[in-house]
């Protein structure tokens, strides 16, 4: 029932075809969840303390929106091209254990919600995240976002490509 309600919220319509498709979509989603759980393809073990980081997400979205607005203004008015960059940032999300998998997913979502920054991928063996920024921003902020809350994140970061 909950997945059906989610379907109706996503389609934002009570038209007959949408309401009729809702149970099928809910059944498909529930079946996929059960299949993943039964075959142990992916196991997550998030920590409750991680969710404190969500409090900073609205500020990150506003901040990055401001950065992009300034870059757009400079592009339109001055003709300046913003410098974008792909970076390698340490994340210490190594391994295939459920907690490391959950941290990779959580860090990717929290980092990529803000419009200036997008996590392309995280190397689970090397503990490095490949992150793209439309407008170059401070590396330290990225390191803090991708760092595990227990402080186990160490190291610097590297630029992968220039403008």
Description:
The chain is an alpha+beta fold and 163 residues long. Strand 2 (117-123) and strand 3 form a beta hairpin. Strands 2-3-1-4 form a four-stranded antiparallel beta sheet, covered by helices on one side. The protein contains five helices and four strands. It is flat, with a radius of gyration of 19 Å. The chain folds into two domains: 2-39; 48-161, no CATH class.
In a few lines, what is going on in this structure?
The protein has 163 residues and is an alpha+beta fold.
Topology:
Layout: H1 2-11, H2 16-39, H3 57-78, E1 85-90, H4 98-112, E2 117-123, E3 128-133, H5 139-146, E4 158-161
Antiparallel strand pairs: 1-3, 1-4, 2-3
Helix pairs in contact: 1-2
**Overall tally of domains:** 2
What does the average pLDDT come to? 81
Main sheet record: 4 strands, antiparallel
Q: Label the overall shape.
A: flat
| Chain oligomer state | single chain
Our Rg estimate from Cα atoms comes to 19 Å
Please estimate the helix content.
Answer: 40-55%
What's the arrangement of strands in the largest beta sheet? Answer: 2-3-1-4
- Total number of beta strands: 4
Taken in chain order, the helices and strands follow as HHHEHEEHE
What is the straight-line distance between the termini?
49 Å
Number of helices: 5
- What class, by secondary structure content? alpha+beta
Percent of residues in beta strands? 5-15%
Low-pLDDT ranges = 153-157
């Amino acid at each position: 029932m909950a997945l059906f309600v989610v379907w109706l919220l996503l389609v934002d319509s009570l038209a007959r075809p949408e309401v009729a498709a809702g149970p099928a979509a809910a059944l498909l989603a529930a079946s996929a969840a059960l299949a993943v759980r039964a075959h142990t393809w992916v196991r997550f073990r998030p920590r409750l303390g991680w969710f404190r980081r969500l409090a900073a997400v609205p500020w990150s979205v506003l901040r990055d929106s401001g950065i992009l607005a300034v870059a757009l203004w400079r592009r339109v008015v001055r003709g300046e091209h913003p410098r974008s960059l792909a970076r390698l940032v340490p994340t210490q999300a190594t391994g295939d254990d459920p907690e490391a998998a959950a941290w990779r997913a959580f860090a990717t979502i929290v980092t990529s919600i803000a419009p200036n920054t997008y996590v392309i991928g995280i190397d689970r063996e090397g503990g490095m995240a490949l992150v793209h920024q439309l407008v170059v921003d401070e590396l330290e902020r990225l390191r803090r976002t991708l760092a595990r809350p227990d402080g186990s994140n160490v190291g610097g970061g590297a630029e992968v490509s220039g403008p």
